[in-house]
Automatic annotation (TrEMBL):
PANTHER family, sorted: GLYCOGEN PHOSPHORYLASE
Cofactor: pyridoxal 5'-phosphate
Stated role: Phosphorylase is an important allosteric enzyme in carbohydrate metabolism. Enzymes from different sources differ in their regulatory mechanisms and in their natural substrates. However, all known phosphorylases share catalytic and structural properties.
Class in the EC hierarchy, top level: transferase
Gene from which the chain derives: glgP
The species this protein was found in: Craurococcus roseus
Alphabetically ordered keywords of this record: Carbohydrate metabolism, Glycosyltransferase, Pyridoxal phosphate, Transferase
Name of this protein: glycogen phosphorylase
Lineage: Bacteria, Pseudomonadati, Pseudomonadota, Alphaproteobacteria, Acetobacterales
Family indicated by similarity: Belongs to the glycogen phosphorylase family.
The enzyme's E.C. designation: 2.4.1.1
């Protein structure tokens, strides 16, 4: 009996992802992609889908964020101890990197749902004595290091992951690549389908693509060309050696460089974007491929505050397993909804005090903005006209909380964090602004439930989906957001929240700040201050119309029925 026995016989699908947010105590994720993968795993357990997850162990986590006195982000590793959460497995596999064998071992993390379903997560680890000291750290730090290290990490995930599952005894029929990071897997599979001499090749190709394509499912998350991983072929040759002939790779992955998205597109029979709008953008970017849409969803019991969980239990006893039933949320009593929100808001007030010393006033509305700090998310949009913001706050007092990490090499994102701190200081006495350091799953839970209004201001069409507004809606928090990603599907003006700008109009981006201020001053804040009944009605509409639809059970039922059971 090995720890894997309960899973080996039934598991048929492997889900490979560079990051998976398994638990608030396990910092193996950077942001939305990892949280989505974690919610996917949680729903697979709930629905008892036969899926195994594969991801690097990332012992040093992604980034522990400290904010210096000048508002500068100071980067620290965020180590965790795999032995405290997972079981070591004894299989060992090797891949060749820069001509050296790199050995990989793995850990088994089990995610169990309260109903009894359980999914295995295989954490790949190169920190082994057998490895050259230069190679031991490959899986240590999520997205750490340079381009070469990134390619090595992707080789461990894609090539090492495939070998590891075989070595452990899994018989996988369908491989799900969560983003292009895992696309080297396709080469590992292709090598098993090299055409023997005498069989007709597909043009000059020496490999039979169809059996690989049939088995691969690819979810792309990146709506801009620059966001796709791309490696120069001389680097690929240097790192992977003769693993796969470069002249064979060019027609599959791009003439000039190895584009991981192209490779995955060419070798996956089923491809999807993560919202309708994103799939349209991806089709324009990659003409000639059939790209479907499955809009992301969030894991409802994970993101619902306990006070709302108690309310949901009364109107829909099966809500956690079958969140469609949250459509009944308009039956909730207003006073109960307000009381639950007050409880969640008190927790945010306390967390804010603890993290940055700021005292929020629970009697005033809190506008929250929390996401990865990077240019296209425009965390500075709200602060672009401080005079206007002061004038609005003089009529309709409100406070702002901001959170988010910048990638250690994203100088622009770090500058935005400094700029937000400068704005906060300049607005002191007029508009309280608190920056909460260390945005992670635990802080996200507090923020999405405790805020009164969830703000999102990406530059279209850059937001593939976005999910934090879904988490907020579950807790009765309406969004004020640019119509991009999922919000283009979920926004019902004045019902689930409000739109900034017109639908799909990127050219309008310059007017977004104006529109944001107009909605805050003319619509959202007056409603919060002046019409509590209508505001509470909107809270219930957010739960009923968004909570019942934008959840990961719906998302995984669709992946299972449409992508896995083709
Ligand atoms: C949900 C979540 C995200 C993704 O949210 P977006 O809406 O895509 O910005 C990122 N980080 C954390 C910690 C989250 O919980």
């Amino acid at each position: 009996m090995t720890p894997l026995d309960p899973y080996l016989a039934r598991t048929r699908i492997a889900y490979l992802s560079m990051e998976v947010a398994l638990d608030p105590a396990i910092p193996t994720y950077a942001g939305g992609l990892g949280v989505l993968a974690g919610d996917t795993a949680r729903s697979c357990a709930d629905l008892e889908l036969p899926v195994v997850f594969v991801t690097p162990v990332s012992r040093d986590g992604y980034l522990r964020q400290e904010i210096g006195s000048g508002g500068e982000q100071i980067d620290h590793p965020d180590p965790w101890d795999p032995a405290a959460h997972a079981t070591p497995l004894d299989a060992m596999v090797a891949i060749r990197i820069e001509g050296r064998p790199v050995w990989i071992q793995s850990w088994l993390y089990r995610h169990a749902c309260p109903h009894g379903g359980c999914v295995p997560v295989i954490l790949l680890d190169t920190r082994l004595e057998q490895n050259d000291p230069a190679d031991r750290g490959i899986t240590d730090r999520l997205y750490g290091g340079d381009e070469a290290l990134r390619l090595k990490q992707e080789a461990v995930l894609g090539i090492g992951g495939e070998r590891m599952l075989r070595a452990l005894g899994f018989e996988i029929q369908t491989w799900h690549l969560n983003e292009g990071h895992a696309a080297l897997l396709t080469l590992a599979l292709l090598r098993r389908h090299r055409l023997s001499a005498g069989r007709p090749a597909e043009g000059p190709l020496l490999y039979d693509l169809d059996p690989v394509r049939e088995r691969c499912v690819f979810t792309t998350h990146t709506p801009v060309e620059a966001g796709h991983d791309r490696f120069p072929y001389d680097l690929v040759s240097h790192v992977l050696g003769d693993f796969f002939e470069i002249d064979q790779l060019r027609p599959l992955a791009g003439e000039d460089a190895l584009n991981m998205t192209r490779l995955a597109l060419n070798l996956s029979a089923w491809v999807n974007g993560v919202a309708s709008r994103h799939a349209e953008t991806a089709r324009r970017m990659f003409p000639g491929y059939r790209i479907r849409a499955i809009t992301n969803g969030v894991h409802v019991p994970t993101w619902t505050h306990p006070a709302f969980a108690r309310l949901f239990q009364r109107i829909a006893p099966d809500w956690a397993h079958d969140p469609d039933t949250l459509v009944r949320a308009d039956r909730l009593e207003d006073a109960a909804v307000r009381a639950a929100h007050a409880e969640a808001k008190a927790a945010l007030v306390e967390e804010t005090k603890a993290r940055c010393g700021a005292a929020l006033d629970p009697a005033l509305p809190v506008v929250a903005f929390a996401r990865r700090m990077t240019g296209y998310k425009r965390p500075d949009l709200l602060f672009s006209d401080p005079g206007r913001l002061r004038a609005i706050a003089a009529r309709w007092p409100f406070q702002v909380v901001v959170a988010g990490k910048a990638h250690p090499r994203d100088g622009g994102g770090k500058a935005l964090i400094r700029a937000v701190h400068e704005q906060a200081r300049a607005l002191e006495g007029a508009v309280p602004v608190a920056f909460l350091p260390g945005y992670d799953m635990a802080l996200a839970k507090v923020l999405v439930a405790g805020a009164d209004l969830w703000l999102n201001t990406p530059l279209p069409p850059m937001e593939a989906s976005g999910t934090s507004g879904m988490k907020a809606a579950l807790n009765g928090v309406p969004s004020l957001s640019v119509l991009d990603g999922w919000w283009a599907e979920a926004c019902e003006e004045g019902v689930t929240g409000w739109a900034i700008g017109r639908d799909g109009d990127a050219a309008e981006a310059a007017g977004h700040a104006r529109d944001l201020y107009a909605k805050l001053e003319g619509t959202a804040l007056p409603l919060w201050h002046g019409d509590k009944d209508r505001w509470t009605w909107m809270m219930k509409q957010a739960i009923a119309r968004i909570g019942s639809r934008f959840h990961s059970q719906r998302m995984m039922r669709r992946y299972a029925a449409e992508a896995y059971l083709r």
